[in-house]
Amino acid sequence: MLKRLCVGLVAMVMSLVVAAAEGERFQDGKDYVTLPFPVKTVDESKIEVVEMFGYLCPHCNAFEPLVHSWSEKQADDVEFVRIPVVFGRSWEPLARSYYVAELLDAVDQTHQAVFDAIHLQKKRFTSEEDLAEFYSSLGVDSDQFSKLYNSFAVNTKLNQGESKARGYEITGVPTMVVNGKYRITAAMAGGHKQMLEVVDFLVEKERQAK
């Protein structure tokens, strides 16, 4: 009985030591930033992790394989969300195309392909017609694409995305946001891989808080 109690106490102390070490490893204001005003998440029963990205961003292109692999390994209590950022006029058509794919449940078949087209094949999409033709080559019906491209649903998603970007105080991409509270960038974390390590730390912090 006493032996079991001692073992339990040792395990508890070790877990506290590990937690303290993790706390020292990732510091608010150094490795991540706590937002001054939390942004409401879609589903409060989940731990929401948002990736703010842009198809034209070479850093997002490099980050995509890492974040995709990370997202595939998450537990059921984690909700992974992508939001395309619009930093200028040339970014909006690609953001619209992402939302069209999302509405058609076609992101899995199109997302990486769009990155590859821009950064490997050096394609330039200058119009809705260009995008509709390209998405058609990926199996998305061009008529459905065009119907949704300027639709109320896509406009709403675009506005919501811009609102979230303001709330998160986004200045560059890729940026990760955990549960509407914490913003993480590669510059702060020390790289793309390290950014996901900080995300994991903050996800666990939120999980323990629940």
Question: How does this structure look, described?
Answer:
This protein folds into 2 domains: 1-27; 31-209, Glutaredoxin. 58% of the residues lie in helices and 11% in strands. Helix 2 links the parallel strand 2 and strand 3. The chain is built from 9 helices and 5 strands. The longest helix has 24 residues, at 2-25. Helix 2 packs antiparallel against helix 4, helix 3 (92-103) packs across helix 7 (152-168) and helix 5 packs antiparallel against helix 6 (142-149). The protein has helices at 2-25, 58-72, 92-103, 107-119, 128-137, 142-149, 152-168, 186-189, 192-209, and strands spanning 33-34, 47-53, 78-84, 175-178, 182-185. The chain has a 5-stranded mixed sheet, sandwiched between helices. The protein is α+β, with helices and mostly antiparallel strands. The chain is globular. The two termini are 32 Å apart.
Question: Strands of the largest sheet, in order across it?
Answer: 1-5-4-2-3
Poorly predicted regions are 2-13, 15-19
Q: Please name the fourth-level CATH homologous superfamily of the largest domain.
A: Glutaredoxin
Alpha-beta classification: alpha+beta
Question: Quick one: how many beta strands?
Answer: 5
CATH C-level class of the largest domain: Alpha Beta
What's the overall average pLDDT, rounded? 91
Global morphology: globular
**Helix content class:** 55-70%
Largest beta-sheet details? 5 strands, mixed
| Rg result | 20 Å
- Domain module count: 2
Order of helical and strand elements: HEEHEHHHHHEEHH
